[in-house]
Amino acid sequence: MEPPRNIKEVQSLTERVAALNRFVSKATDKCLPFFKVLKKAQALANFIVEFTPNLGDLDEVNEDKKWVVYVDSSSKLHAGGIGVILKSPEGDKLKYTACLWYQITNNKVEYEALLKGLKLAKSLRAELIVVQGDSQLIMGQVNGICEAKEEWMKKYLSKVKRLIKKFKEASFHQVPKEENMEANALAKVASIEWSMDELDEVQYMPSIDLPEV
Predict the structure, then answer these.
(1) Span 178-196, mean pLDDT?
(2) Cα 193 to Cα 210: distance, rounded to the nearest angstrom
(3) Least confident residue range of 42-51, 57-66, 176-185
(4) 210 partner at 20 to 30 Å CA-CA among 144, 152, 155, 163?
């Protein structure tokens, strides 16, 4: 019998042992030989305890496998820029910049940065991610703390949630601006017209108006 490999398997085995113990406990009132079964059940329980990793250790293993995704944006009069930094579990960084070559508001460009960060993380086959951005509103909406009232916000939020489902685990954190300076610097450069030759991508319309791929 293989030892449990994750929290769900630990919980499943624990429930099975508990059910077996309840059955054996009732059976021993009727028939003495069932005491032998009880001993076997206890042996199985001891096996689980011996070979089950500490849940805290499982959390530490998961932490070691998480990607950190930093997202930020910048908006000018006729264009916007997004900056994304993906940090691998080993500490390697991938930087990405894109110019949104159309008129766009601050909150819309923040959502574009978040969408791009999620898409890039998925393209790198990341399964566990921690997303950090300095927009309190956007992070609040994704976490269900703030309500998306405008129709365009609902569309962006819906698109984000569809992407989230593609990951095993995803958490979103609002951080102070000073803790997101590197992504912010990339976004500012991306919003400047003369830097377009140095960008990774130029986008000419909002993501919510593009067909699903």
Answers:
(1) 87
(2) 23
(3) 42-51
(4) 144
Q: Which CATH number fits domain 65-209: 3.40.190.10, 3.40.50.150, 3.30.420.10, 3.40.390.10?
A: 3.30.420.10
For residue 78, the one-letter residue type is: H
Query: Which of the pair, 163 or 1, is modelled with greater confidence?
Result: 163
Our CA angle for 158, 127, 74, nearest 5°, is 55
Mean pLDDT of 66-76: 95
pTM above 0.90, yes or no: no
pLDDT digit string, tens, across residues 80-94: 999 999 999 999 999
- What the block records as the tokens of 45 is 């329980």
Round to whole Å and give the CA distance between 199 and 79: 14
Q: What region does 51 belong to: left with phi over 0, alpha with psi -120 to 50, or beta?
A: alpha
Of 34, 123, 114, 60, the closest CA to residue 82 belongs to 114
Domain ranges of the chain: 7-61, 65-209
Residue from 186, 194, 191 nearest 203 by CA = 191
Decide: 117 and 124 in contact? Cβ < 8 Å. no
The span from the CA of 17 to the CA of 29, in Å, is: 19
